[in-house]
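Researcher: We're teaching a course module on how sequence relates to structure. For the next exercise, students receive a sequence and then see the predicted structure as tokens, so they can try to spot secondary structure elements on their own. Here is the exercise chain.
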Amino acid sequence: MCFKKLMTIILSIGFAMPVFSQQTKPKTLTYNYAVKGLVIDTSTNLKLKDAAVIILNSKDSIIKQFTRTQPDGSFFMNGMPGGDYILYISYPGYADYTEKFALDSSRTTKDFSMISLILKTHLLKEVIIKGTMSTIRIKGDTTEYNAKAYKLSPNAKVEDLLKRLPGIQIDKDGRISAQGQTINKVLVDGEEFFGDDPTLVTRNLRADMVDKVQLFDKKS
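Model: And here is the predicted structure for the students to work with:
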């Protein structure tokens, strides 16, 4: 029997106020810090090539650097300033991995050594990603993002929010993809109010109305 993968984004609407931040004078930063590691399968120790490795700013989840793992599963990023960060790793079919870390004068290179990813098929119950961050969680076939963890401009639309979510890409025409799959449906509280064109939602609905974004991956 042949199965077709269907990926859908579900927006949960709530009441949220725009977040304003006070501008401060930028600090002089030294960009001489580095991050490295090795990504493998947790059960077979298979080295995972082309896994997406993203460094996020811990305070506002802004993406600082992005790379993909080499054929031997390794990754290396340098030229970073000191500070508090989040490591985010994504690979198709596996549960996403996140971990908080810091770069400072006592640790100019953060070596994560071996990072083991778990196949989603091995997840028997809800898995909350490692660390204290509540930005992302995995539950079965659903990846859930906490929309309030991302700071956006007061007039930002849902499309602006989706562009900030690790693992989700949007092209100039508003087409959405995740894990190499095109997303054709964007539901609001589980209902398809705006027809089959996702941009009717993503380019018209305000981002500050959204509590959470769920990426639903299911075979049919």
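Model: If you want an answer key for the exercise: The longest helix spans residues 158-164. The two ends are 10 Å apart (CA to CA).
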